[in-house]
Amino acid sequence: MEFMNFAFHCKSKPKEGTGKKIAIIGAGPAGLVAAGYLACMGHEIDVYDKQPEPGGLMIFGIPETRIPIERVRLGCEHLEEEFGVKFYTSTKVMFGERHDEGDELTKKTVNLKELMESYDVVLITTGTWRSRMPDIEGKNLDGVYTALDYLYRLKASKLGYLPKEHAPEVKGKRVAVIGGGYSAVDAVLESKLWGAKDVYLLYRRTIYEAPAGIYEINQLKNKGVHWMELVTPNRIIGEGHVKGIELLKCKLGEPDASGRR
User: Fold this and answer.
1) Does domain 147-249 have CATH number 1.20.1050.40?
2) CA–CA distance, 232 with 42 (Å, rounded to integer)
3) Where in the chain is the domain with CATH 3.50.50.60?
4) pTM for the full model?
5) Residue-level pLDDT, tens digit, the chain, 261 residues
6) Which CATH fold topology does 21-124 show?
7) What is the C-alpha to C-alpha distance for residues 164 and 194, in angstroms, rounded to an integer?
């Protein structure tokens, strides 16, 4: 299998380095490409990431049908072996204390100030590990997840990093996903891969306004996904655990300045 080439700016590491040390915080696509680019310039690169292996959401979020995990892993090995990039995994760089999604596998923390004092340059490429949850009744019931937490737990469990009991119970279940973007599409795809009985994709606008696009939505419909448009959640129903969802019917308004309704 062909590796994902994060150092596509050059064929090999320069014979003479610059003597500069650079710390990159975050080993997702942005961090890995930055590591490849800067390594091609002859800098010494250390990459810190809170997950147990580099790759970010390419490993721990996006379905393998989109991005094969092995290509990402081979690309990271290429950075290590050919360019001397060092990865410090399960390590979260912080300034102060806070909990984010995806912190379950973090084993060590490093203070940002320490890195700033130890390196010539510190580059932050962490992405966003905090999701927005609609402020509706029932949002705190068991079985209700943000797309990021849902995908992360499923992928981490599949890779053997999280115990099965820490992953959402999907097989044979009915799953409702709210949204029309790529995170929603990925959550739907993973639900199907994990054997969900029925999967519903609920969106407040129509297929023509969905950020993921008409093609992606039609692909899901062809896989048996139930597409429901012009609906928005009013409340999530359940006692302790989610049992259902109450929806409100929506209507498209007039186009805004961008032309979106």
Assistant:
1) no
2) 52
3) 21-124, 147-249
4) 0.92
5) 899 999 999 989 999 999 999 999 999 999 999 999 999 999 999 999 999 999 999 999 999 999 999 999 999 999 999 999 999 999 999 998 889 999 999 999 999 999 999 999 999 999 888 898 989 999 999 999 999 999 999 999 999 999 999 999 999 999 999 999 999 999 999 999 999 999 999 999 999 999 999 999 999 999 999 999 999 999 999 999 999 999 999 999 888 777 777
6) FAD/NAD(P)-binding domain (3.50.50)
7) 12
Q: Is 153 exposed, middle or buried (0-12, 13-18, 19+ CB in 10 A)?
A: buried
Of the candidates 72, 88, 95, 86, the one whose C-alpha atom is nearest the C-alpha of residue 44 is: 86
| Residue 17: half-sphere exposure toward Cβ, Cα within 13 Å | 12
Q: What's the CA gap between 170 and 189, in Å, rounded?
A: 12
